[in-house]
Design a protein that fits this description.
The protein has about 180 residues and is mainly α. It folds into two domains: about 70 residues; about 80 residues, no CATH class. Helix content is about 85%, strand content about 0%. Helix 2 runs antiparallel to helix 3.
């Protein structure tokens, strides 16, 4: 009776609902037990008496389990709470470590990609500068044709540095014009 009242009070936080349920539960258990005891008769044979007592034994075991579990939880409530807090903190720490590891791996991958892009940008800047130098040399006559302002040759070489500048700008890098 007390255990059922405590169980209902734990869920509802109301004595008004816990007391009637506790009284009803106690009456049910009392009447079941009374019925089982009154239906048992001496048979003279121990085996038959054991078979007749079996429902009472099963009911006693069931009641003891039902009664003991809420009491056990109430008695060890502080220890259970402390253990749950410890388990939660361990799980939280493990999750934080997992996230840190994942973030560090992502950072390393991005740094590697950044290094690769820096190298590619440097190569493209070098090519642009080289093409610009060739175009200037052709314009002042010190280049491959040895003619000053070799128009057809300059026209074929001039778009190359412009294309390289556009290519570099696609990497969102500010380059001198």
């Amino acid at each position: 009776m007390l255990v059922s009242g405590y169980a209902i009070y734990t869920f509802t936080d109301s004595y008004g609902s816990a007391i009637p349920v506790a009284i009803l539960w106690g009456a049910i258990i009392f009447n079941l037990n009374r019925y089982i005891v009154s239906s048992m008769r001496k048979a003279g044979n121990e085996r038959n008496e054991l078979i007749m007592a079996l429902p009472r034994i099963v009911l006693a075991v069931l009641i003891s389990v039902v009664i003991s579990r809420p009491l056990e939880l109430k008695i060890f409530e502080k220890e259970i709470g402390a253990e749950l807090t410890l388990i939660n903190s361990e799980l939280k720490e493990a999750r934080v470590n997992q996230l840190r590891t994942k973030a560090n791996m992502a950072i390393l991958l991005l740094q590697k990609e950044n290094t690769s892009l820096d190298s590619l940008t440097f190569q493209k800047e070098e090519l642009r500068n080289e093409l610009r130098s060739i175009a200037r040399q052709e314009a002042d006559g010190t280049g491959g044709s040895k003619k000053r302002n070799a128009c057809s040759f300059i026209k074929s070489k001039k778009p190359m540095p412009i294309m390289q500048r556009r290519n570099l700008q696609s990497y969102n890098i500010v380059t001198p014009k």
